[in-house]
Amino acid sequence: MAITVYFVRHGQTYLNRYNRMQGWSDAPLTEKGIEDAKRVGKALSKVKFDYIFSSDLSRAVNTARLLLAADPNTDLKEPIQEPAFREIFFGFFEGANGGAVADIVGGKYGYHTFSQMAAGWGTDELKDRIAKADQYGDAEDAERFWHRMDKGFDRLRNLPDNSVAVVVSHGAAIRSIADRYLEGVDQNVSPRNGSIMKMTLTDTDTDTHVDFYNQLHIPDK
């Protein structure tokens, strides 16, 4: 069994623009975010995909709709909304300044950005440290995140063999997937808004792999 999946990060939102923590919190796409979505739609127009999924957060749903509208080669009209593909939930830190949260969680270790923390600790330990720092206990740790995300992968694995799917998801979620399945991924680099990650998904994690990461266009073979 092999399923080809193109993970797309949603277009820029106002909370992205203002460097605010945006997990389950949501914000509208900026003008740049709308253009991000249209651009990735044109980039994916060379791919014949059978399904399109999105997280159920509005920034992902709207990106998927704009993507479809910009792709003249697809007959799909509406994304399938799947909550499993949501962003990490940051709990108490939702909406906070990203730099300030990085200082709270990683400052005493010499880390002052999320990329530095992801590179130093790995994405799963970073989730656990954010969850531990949340005084309300609401932020997702790695176990809770993967319990949810793996439900989405199970849904993809149940598609017909050789299907091609697009999934519009979120930056920290996509970086976590890359960390799990792409050996040597540079965690200092966050996936850009409107970027594409291609995966080959098999029935076992051993053979599942990332083909490319954080690309604004489909690389030429």
Structure, explained:
The chain is α/β, with parallel strands linked by helices and 221 residues long. 38% of the residues lie in helices and 15% in strands. The chain has eight helices and six strands, in the order βααβαβααααβαββ. It has helices at 14-17, 31-43, 58-69, 98-106, 114-121, 123-133, 142-157, 171-181, and strands at 2-9, 51-54, 80-81, 164-169, 196-202, 209-215. Strands 3-2-4-1-5-6 form a six-stranded mixed beta sheet. A hairpin with a 6-residue loop joins strand 5 and strand 6. Helix 2 (31-43) packs across helix 3 and helix 5 packs across helix 6 (123-133). It starts with a strand and ends in a 6-residue tail after the last strand.
What sequence of helices (H) and strands (E) makes up the elements?
EHHEHEHHHHEHEE
Structural class: alpha/beta
Estimate the helix proportion, in percent: 25-40%
Shape: globular
Name the average pLDDT.
96
Low-confidence stretches: none
Strand numbers in spatial order across the main sheet: 3-2-4-1-5-6
Number of strands: 6
First-residue to last-residue Cα separation: 23 Å
Percentage of β-strand residues: 15-25%
The number of helical elements comes to 8
Q: What's the Cα radius of gyration?
A: 17 Å
Largest sheet descriptor: 6 strands, mixed
Short summary:
With 221 residues, the protein is of the alpha/beta class.
What keyword list fits this structure?
globular, 15% strand, 221 residues, 38% helix, 6-stranded mixed β-sheet, 6 strands, alpha/beta
